[in-house]
Amino acid sequence: MKEITHLTNLPTPCYYYNIELLQKTLEKVKAEVAKYPLFHVHYAVKANANPVLLKLISASGLGADCVSGNEVGRAVECGFAPDQIVYAGVGKNDEEIRVALNADIFCFNSESLPEIRVIDEIAAACGKKARIALRVNPNVDAHTHHYITTGIEENKFGIYLYDLEHVIEESRMLPNVELIGLHFHIGSQITDMGVFRSLCLKVNEIQQKLKRKGIVFPHINFGGGLGIDYNHPYGEPIADFENYFATFAKFFEAEPYQQVHFELGRSIIAHCGDMISKVLYVKEGRNKKFVILDAGMNDLLRPALYQAFHKIENISSDKPEEKYDVVGPICESADCFGKDVSLKGTARGDLIVIHSAGAYGEAMASQYNLRDLPATFFSVPQH
């Protein structure tokens, strides 16, 4: 983290974003997608909705994947073209649906027949016709944390395979919706390309079954899910987009002219952001030492919520490494960023960096304990 060691005057805790890395990441995504003319990428706004970052991402030409009406509104405000915005979510409310219809977004990813019927009613009242992709639960296990697995039958997401043909038949009878595709998303932080291969094979099977009944859709959306290497933020700062897109190009049997969509969030933004915090105290127990930061679980929730790993580094010290539990000030035992973490000898006032916090960091921050929200700062790209 040499590029921020001189920024000792930043108010902490804060998020610090590497704009140059974000630009390089976006360039890599665009270069890989360009190999496959029918592939389209939508940035998953839920990963990080900071307007500065969204404007950079929209300027790169990516679309947006939204999961709330406010995300749709912010995407439009930040320059995303409405005809490149998709809107997913198992519980869209009436006002959110109206917002999306009035914005004339590309597509709703719809999760149930009751939802589709409500969209039809609201579209009729708005004088609109809603484009819809059916989110299908393919019963494919992403083999990741159970909180971020979304594609097996025990999850709340999507239309189950046994009900798919019935939903298609019923939806086609509704006058104010147009079925244009199928949508799949099986989970997050997936680094095994074999999981995506399995998804392709399952979608091929579903498509062929529907095709035999004369049903072919012009759009297939595979969601996102591509993971990053949290252990090596320096060595692997850009996710494996090459193998990710190549896997779908090789194993998905697309129909002629069928458009293929992806919704990537973490893999685009996670490594571009770090949480910076200062040490308040070093507390010595009988069996371990605690580094107590001014950042808490309200600032970065992932370790408490998912038991997620982030590489933690002391950038102020040149002392020999010691083992510490790195914790925050919140009155919760879950307020812990890492146990038995090897840090250079640490003292009050040292600057600690929690790496790869650009995704689901700032976006999930809260004011629990009436704490202030973390500030945000941005690097200036070097030219």
From TrEMBL:
Its cofactor is pyridoxal 5'-phosphate. It holds the Pfam family Orn_Arg_deC_N. HAMAP family: LysA. Specifically catalyzes the decarboxylation of meso-diaminopimelate (meso-DAP) to L-lysine. The active site is at C331. It comes from Odoribacter laneus YIT 12061. The lineage of its organism: Bacteria, Pseudomonadati, Bacteroidota, Bacteroidia, Bacteroidales. Its EC number is 4.1.1.20. Belongs to the Orn/Lys/Arg decarboxylase class-II family. LysA subfamily. PANTHER family: DIAMINOPIMELATE DECARBOXYLASE, GROUP IV DECARBOXYLASE. Substrate binds at R266, R302, Y306, E332, Y360. Homodimer. Signal peptide: none annotated. The keyword Transcription regulation does not apply. The modification N6-(pyridoxal phosphate)lysine is found at K46. The keyword Translocase does not apply. GO terms for biological process: lysine biosynthetic process via diaminopimelate. GO terms for molecular function: diaminopimelate decarboxylase activity; pyridoxal phosphate binding. It catalyses: meso-2,6-diaminopimelate + H(+) = L-lysine + CO2. This is Diaminopimelate decarboxylase. Residues 27-270 form the Orn/DAP/Arg decarboxylase 2 N-terminal domain. Pyridoxal 5'-phosphate binds at G225, E263, L264, G265, R266, Y360.
